[in-house]
Amino acid sequence: MMGDDAPFSLEPVVLLDEVFPGHTNALDTLFGGRLMSIMDTAAGMCASKFAHREFVTVSVDALKFRRPAFQGDVIRTTARVVWTSPRTAGIHVTSCRLSRSEWVGEEICSGFFFMVAVDESMKPVNIPQFVPETEEEKEMWGRAAAAREAMG
């Protein structure tokens, strides 16, 4: 899909973060709010890379925290645009914990972040549209659309 309204990038954004002592709760596991902040940051960067616009978060799918991450772990967060409407990008974000001894990703949380493109006066603006082509892309589009609809 090329042309003036084509996305600037379909590549995912990958962030690496370390779980420091100040990021943990009383059980020495990563604080959920900290992880949500990391995921939201990755989603915003991904949306901007996709559309070359500023974005604000409008809604977040119910995030499921599957397993904890511990102090010293590395968190790898991957964000990819999987759905669009005229002014909104739906980004699927997955965070994995990696222990320093193995560097194998173990998923800890995933969900959809919906971001609206805005101009300097915070007015919504149009963005390029994502067109799912592969079966996997079509499935993720459907999941994102369902999540968005469930939010009202």
What would you say this structure looks like, in words?
The chain has 152 residues and is α+β, with helices and mostly antiparallel strands. Helix content is 24%, strand content 33%. The protein has two helices and six strands; from the N terminus they run E-H-E-E-E-E-E-H. Strands 1, 2, 3, 4, 5 and 6 form a six-stranded antiparallel beta sheet that branches.
Please describe the topology of this protein.
Layout: E1 13-18, H1 32-51, E2 54-60, E3 64-65, E4 74-84, E5 88-98, E6 106-118, H2 135-150
Antiparallel strand pairs: 1-4, 2-6, 3-6, 4-5, 5-6
Throw out a few tags for this protein.
6 strands, single chain, six-stranded antiparallel beta sheet, Thiol Ester Dehydrase, Chain A, 152 residues, alpha+beta, 2 helices, 33% strand, globular
